[in-house]
Design goal:
seven-stranded antiparallel beta sheet; Serum Albumin, Chain A, Domain 1; globular; alpha+beta; binds glutamic acid; about 600 residues; single chain
Amino acid sequence: MKRSATVAACACAALTLSAFGSLPLAAPAAADPRLTEKQATATGSGGAVSTVDADASAAALSVLRKGGNAVDAAVAAAATLGVTEPYSAGIGGGGYFVHYDAESGEVSTLDGRETAPAALSQQDFIDPATGERYPFSPELVTSGVAVGVPGTAATWQRALDEWGTLSLKKALAPAIRTADRGFVVDETFREQTLDNKERFAAFDSSAELFLPGGDAPEVGSTFKNHDLAATYRQLANKGVDEFYTGDLAEEISSTVQAPPIAEDTDLPVPVGEMTPEDLADYEVLEQEPTQVGYRGLEVFGMAPSSSGGTTVGEALGILDGFDPSGMSPADAQHHYLEASALAYADRGRYVGDPAFVDVPTAALTDPVFAAERACEIDPDSAAAKPVAPGDVTDYDGQCPSSTSGWEEKEDTENVSTTHLTTADRWGNVVSYTLTIEQTGGSGITVPGRGFLLNNELTDFTTAEYDPADPNRVEPGKRPRSSMAPTIVLKDGEPMLALGSPGGSTIITTTLQTLINRVDLGMSLPEAIAAPRASQRNTAAVTAEPEYLDTYADDLESLGHTLTPSGDSFTPNAEIGAVAAIEIGPDGTLTAAAEPRRRGGGSAMVLEGER
Ligand code: GLU
């Protein structure tokens, strides 16, 4: 969100740099985050943060400045994003947290994905009035049935318990302040509210919070969320169990089962099955990261239930057999697109919640399997899409004679969700993606609580029931995600951490940014700014306008079909919104966010010794 210059002139001169203690700010030097202009790149060495939002970055920076570590800062930033980016993230949703521990040298991950209620069944996705499956929109998108049991609050507590130094109370403090004091509404917030006007108006609680006086808040006005501040305060004072067992759990489940539907809405709003027991049973899962070697680097990602780590990893594994740096720019793009399509074919065929389906994570990230998949790339010609998945049960790195078919299902490319990256002076790094799925989630605010519930269960294959589909709806299951928080090590030390929102384009954005940085000679800010394209094993590659201008002719002559990106959920055609940090060999931290997409992100650093 961009802060306006008029606000930047407000009388806060008393809050000077001296308030920042021993580590002076190298980036935007305002003590009041509402005064902080966005800056897409910042370089320092005492700690760094990159998010989409200046308030969130300022919250993380204030924690780092006071001696908090990267995990503390990540939780503070995420909680603030719940205030300032309530349509993308918050305690009504879930996410994936990847952590590099400087002391042990280990990368660990937390799976805080939303989970289907225990009573959810295929039947819940069938309209009793018609006997047909509910369409994605408007029925499922704005519904109780698509609300998964939220994992974000539990993820924050678990991350702090495992690796943080702050209490939840301290980590939530900046967000509580921002919620009470308010933030200045920018164009993005107003637009996103207007885009959701019909959905928010369908629920009394959402209309009251996000449509005061019946309209989206004006640009330049101050948006306060005292209900959310009070909810955060409750968690801060009484612990995160309040969310999963107390009154709040009762309120969340009853909101899912009986949303506060406005009298005059035409939206159908199918109701859900969530119970307080579902909340009490929720578990954050700590699990091994995915790991692949790429050009001598080690790339760590999020294992299933997200498809991020296996799909980014497999595509890198395939590309490791080629040398994009020695190719023409169009040939390099051709290989990127083809590797991505192959990895997507395997994602669709094999990846779901490993608690329910046998996911061949080891094969998908195995260089021998990747070498075999690389055989499918013709350097001179694009394969017909969709390409078939590989055989994970029988591979030896030799080119196979045939593969079996699989049809791709889904996916939208909405730019909800948010990614943040933090690094501290001790060398710890966090890469964290969190979401409520659609921009505005389910559209349903828990009455009096100040946060929206997710509609994450739309990430299941809901349009049909196929027993062979690893992502079919099942009770208690986590829907397959594309979120791809990533940490890259070089010689055992962190070199780069990144991630993005963007639905299923998250994977291609992360992959493309890595290739741009590692292979194509771009600096991190250049790698992020470069135009994007996404090939998810579909007939056409979706691409941003600048990408089409640059590559369409050459790629079309290789047999690719290209089409402008954007769908009804992302009419502005932007793909992704990367937030990243690079750690140089001398310890220099380059925090880099989007210079333009989604209104530009916010990178901040501290000076000082690592
Ligand atoms: N629900 C999506 C996923 O987990 C993320 C939402 C988005 O970025 O649009 O993959």
